[in-house]
User: What shape does this take?
Amino acid sequence: MTGAWRSLIVALAAIVLAAPALAQTKTPSKKPAAPLATAPPDNADIAYGAYQRGLYLTALAEATKRAQQNDPRAMTLLGELYAQGLGIGRDDGKAAQWYKQAAAAGDRDAMFALAMFAFEGRAGARNVDEAARLLASAAKLGHAAASYDLGLLYLQGQQFPQDFNRAAELFRAAADAGNPEAQYALATMYKEGRGVPKDPRQATLLMGKASIAGNVDAMVEFAIAQFNGDGIDKDESASARTFLIAARRGSAIAQNRLARILMAGRGMPANPTEAIKWHTIAKAGGASDPELDVFAGKQTQAVRDAAQQAATKWLSTQAALRP
Assistant: This one.
């Protein structure tokens, strides 16, 4: 799912799930218009291999030949190339045509891509009902991202009656397929006891899986669980390492918690300079902390200057990396 729709739907899910404040820093992933989630069959290796290596003209030529033989995977690949303007000028209309042909032939990635087009109003008027229908079709065929997004719609309760049990079922299907966003969403439901029995251990287990897969919100909550021993053996050192990863990924909450760890020397050695550095970075991201302000004020000018210089360098580097 791309663009504003993903931001909207993730925000809606956060509200419905009533996730704790510690988990509200959202960093939704940005996917191409039609994530090619399914491994291609053997006869698709040339086209898909070219696509994966960035040889888009070769991919376009090979996919075009196979599409003429009614190969739905090739049609989906052509839709992807037109949707992103890879190897050819971007053309949402042609992308939609190829996706429709592939979806009619039963390709679940094409169904998902068309759902995204319908949500965002690409190649036609925005049609949320049609998007929901397409998501349901793709989810029935085992498309993990479609199952996750469909679960969010059941949480939202607009295209379908609000149904936490159904949302949990869909999140579970996507989570079992390795979707980290679904793992995080299902973990939150176990934590809150919505749609599933309240189960802190299962919640932490799923948070851990999503954390390993790179979901930053899950990293933060998993690190908190590690630090406190909630649903997992208490391990402050492991918690500190997880917070450090999430802090480097841009989570202001993780940056704040890491600063506190470095201030107190719990989980890693105390380091006033690093503590103030991460506190400064966290504040720039909106996570203020009066206790750390007091701590910083008690340090020498040399420590504060070194921390400020390090924080400024980190923030400047991150700003330069943004598109």
